[in-house]
Amino acid sequence: MLVGESGSGKTMALRMLAGLMVPDDGEIELEGETYYHSTRGRFVPPDRRSIGYMAQNYALFPHLSALENVAFGLRASGAGKANARRRARTMLDRLEIVDLADRRPSQMSGGQQQRVALARALVLEPRLLLLDEPLAALDLATRRTVRTELAKLLAALPCVTVYVTHSPAEALVLGDLVAVMEEGRVRQMGTRDDLLRHPRSQYVAEFLGLNLFQGRVRAHTDDGLAVIAVEGGDIYVAHDVAVGESVHIVVDPREVVLSDEPPHGSARNVFAGPIEEMVPEPPGDRLRVALGSRPPMLADITRGSAAGMGLVPGRMAYASFKATGARMFR
Amino acid sequence: MIRGAVQVAMVVAIAVLVLLLGLPLLALLVRVPSGSLLSRLSDPVIQEALRLSLFTSLVSTLIVVLLGTPVAYLLATRTFPGKPILETVIDLPMVLPPTVAGLALLLAFGRAGLAGRALSALGITIPFTTAAVVVAQVFMSVPFFLTSARAGFAGVPRSLTDAAATLRASESYAFFRVVLPLSMPALVAGASMSCARALGEFGATITFAGNLPGITQTMPLAVYVAFQTDLEASIVLSVILMLLSFLLLVGLRATPAGLAGRRPTAPRLVSTISR
Fold first, then answer.
1. Strand A160-165 with A33-37, pairing
2. Strand, coil or helix: what is A296?
3. In a 3-state reduction of DSSP, which class is residue A309?
4. DSSP secondary structure code for residue A5 in this structure
5. ipTM value > 0.85
6. Is the peptide bond before A295 cis (omega within 30 degrees of 0)?
7. Residue A169, Cα to own-chain centre: how many angstroms?
8. pTM (2 decimals)?
9. What DSSP assignment string belongs to B203-231?
10. Residues in Cβ contact with B211 at an 8 Å cutoff, skipping those fewer than 6 apart
11. What pLDDT is stored for residue A280 in this prediction?
12. Residue B166: which of A52, A75, A106 has the nearest Cβ?
């Protein structure tokens, strides 16, 4: 999982791995095979690397059907037409999109195009799969379902996947190993818990500064909310999940409202605790407040309202957010 | 008020242009001697000129496509030292007066020309032969093909050629399976433009190839000769030439890009491809 703001060099890193760009120096090695070595002058071109690459816009060939798109790589590596088409069809079948076989990319939805692009890369059985913002080209509504399906699919793949995203939530939830990139460098790499508990720089802390909880669905309420048991308490989420399912919940600190007395509003999630820290959150006139509640919460608040309520470190405060303010990932 | 003025200006401009472009064509058509079009077609001079014109412009278009395609691909995909110079040299025939081009060709490939001496030592003589007609046509028409083909190649999104490369496609495989099919409308448009230009070539041909009936006298040359002696024959020839050019234009619009309701010009091709 390669995460960072736009312009931090994620896509460039991916293109270097794929062989579409030549690095200035360094080495690229995959399972003992050197693809690039600056001092030894070694560069293996993209068509000779065992690497699958899916670009942000999927880059399907517009003049070819889904089946022909998937068969393309097999044909290019010398497979006969019938053989290539048979294997392509099998792959489409595996990804449950065999009914798209005769359609052109222009006749498919974004989610379908993504599947075909994945099939096209996977049919060559690469040892490494590179995904550049696989969800960025989708609209918000489809993104959620596609993300869930993609996570399932990636978990079942035999190859290693490098997944580029600008969304910390996506990186934390989907990634086994997360590398945070800034200005062309990996700032920190580690497991999700590593990064959240021990951010080694201000940048990582701010960039990943999200409330992330891991838990299990405990029950459903009468008004259709799911009750998630997380470490330290329960969180109410508006989401359709089965009891017993294991989930991640991400709450953006900007969704969390702070107050100096129990809130009267409709927010279902209210947590009380002492203010542990107040850190300026550039840009703008905001503060990031860490609340020592159970579970612990991060909240964003303007300097003005913090001053108005007399919030200072050590004081008791209430953090609240709506059931719809939490995002859930399976 | 200003909007009204703009509209008036547009209407006037359209009217003037339509008159300027359409009236001469109409004049030509109404002056065709009735019933003589078909009988004139059997005139050997006209037949020879017609045959020669069709033959030379097809051959020159073939040469233009064969030589132009790799060059256009090179120009669209690579940068190299001297590229701007090459681009200027290639564009030159578009702005050069055809008679000047013919003279330049003569000084290069003529018997006493720069390369002509070496050629005649090998027993090859170009000036005043049918080959010279083809050379003159290629010289004058190749920029039309190059411009269109190059834009077509450049219009194939980089992401698609990148995808092809990561799918184990060599550059030549990607060229034939991805780049060429996607640029085909631009190539066809360029070839048609180039063919039409070759068909109408006059100045360079008459200077470099001469005006020998059956050998170098193409349709435009025959029109000019007939004009001085036999106006009626010249009108018939002109109408035939006009019909041929018109057919090419119709063919141009019937290419895939044309069928999609778009003129197959370069910038719009990009949108055709990326849909």
1. unpaired
2. coil
3. coil
4. -
5. no
6. yes
7. 6
8. 0.74
9. HHHHHHT---TTTT--HHHHHHHHHHH-H
10. B217, B221, B225
11. 74
12. A52
